[in-house]
Amino acid sequence: RRRVGILSFQGDFAAHARALRRAGAEPSFVRRIDDLAHLDGLILPGGESTTMLRFLQAEPWFDALREFAASERPLFGTCAGAILLAQSVIHPAQTSLGLLDMTIRRNGYGRQLDSFTDTACITALGEAPLELVFIRAPIIESVGTEVEVLAECGGYPVWVRQGRVFAATFHPEMTDDARVHQFVFGSGFGRDVNRSA
Ligand code: GLN
């Protein structure tokens, strides 16, 4: 079974652990840089990106996470985790890893839509629609040419990838549907949908 780490300083890392088990992977909680060794993939969970950033900046995490991404192991940021991966963060601006070429707007849906659900049909996941849970979600405002949009909702990309770096603005760990985690970390293991590499 593949061993997938979850950055566990803050946020909904426990829900991701359950989702990984449903997807047939073995979760591993990551709190120290050394914990990144021997992982097959890594999740940056939802929560509060500014708080996570404080932990990440207290030690050489930025170098470690960039090395992790360069090693071609899947890296998946959800919600706050997506904010941490972005090339550019606005509203307000915030430092980020720059591992996925997108501009992301924090709390993009505003107070009226603090939390909501929607559905999307994602060809890569098969026929059944996927339930999308958004919680104080960011909006992906633009993506670079190297970025593939895996899902869209309300006119915005909500699930994207650049190579094996994935980001979702919704919370795939909050439903019983394991297809997103399976797609990123499962048998396909972050492979291109349309290519057979
Ligand atoms: N609003 C949070 C932030 O800006 C993200 C919300 C979430 O991860 N559910 O970090």
UniProtKB/TrEMBL annotation:
<dbReference type="InterPro" id="IPR021196">
    <property type="entry name" value="PdxT/SNO_CS"/>
</dbReference>
<comment type="pathway">
    <text>Cofactor biosynthesis; pyridoxal 5'-phosphate biosynthesis.</text>
</comment>
<feature type="active site" description="Charge relay system">
    <location>
        <position position="173"/>
    </location>
</feature>
<keyword id="KW-0378">Hydrolase</keyword>
<dbReference type="InterPro" id="IPR002161">
    <property type="entry name" value="PdxT/SNO"/>
</dbReference>
<keyword id="KW-0315">Glutamine amidotransferase</keyword>
<dbReference type="Pfam" id="PF01174">
    <property type="entry name" value="SNO"/>
</dbReference>
<comment type="subunit">
    <text>In the presence of PdxS, forms a dodecamer of heterodimers. Only shows activity in the heterodimer.</text>
</comment>
<keyword id="KW-0456">Lyase</keyword>
<feature type="active site" description="Charge relay system">
    <location>
        <position position="171"/>
    </location>
</feature>
<keyword id="KW-0663">Pyridoxal phosphate</keyword>
<feature type="active site" description="Nucleophile">
    <location>
        <position position="79"/>
    </location>
</feature>
<feature type="binding site">
    <location>
        <begin position="135"/>
        <end position="136"/>
    </location>
    <ligand>
        <name>L-glutamine</name>
    </ligand>
</feature>
<comment type="similarity">
    <text>Belongs to the glutaminase PdxT/SNO family.</text>
</comment>
<feature type="binding site">
    <location>
        <begin position="47"/>
        <end position="49"/>
    </location>
    <ligand>
        <name>L-glutamine</name>
    </ligand>
</feature>
<dbReference type="InterPro" id="IPR029062">
    <property type="entry name" value="Class_I_gatase-like"/>
</dbReference>
<protein>
    <recommendedName>
        <fullName>Pyridoxal 5'-phosphate synthase subunit PdxT</fullName>
        <ecNumber>4.3.3.6</ecNumber>
        <ecNumber>3.5.1.2</ecNumber>
    </recommendedName>
</protein>
<comment type="function">
    <text>Catalyzes the hydrolysis of glutamine to glutamate and ammonia as part of the biosynthesis of pyridoxal 5'-phosphate. The resulting ammonia molecule is channeled to the active site of PdxS.</text>
</comment>
<feature type="binding site">
    <location>
        <position position="106"/>
    </location>
    <ligand>
        <name>L-glutamine</name>
    </ligand>
</feature>
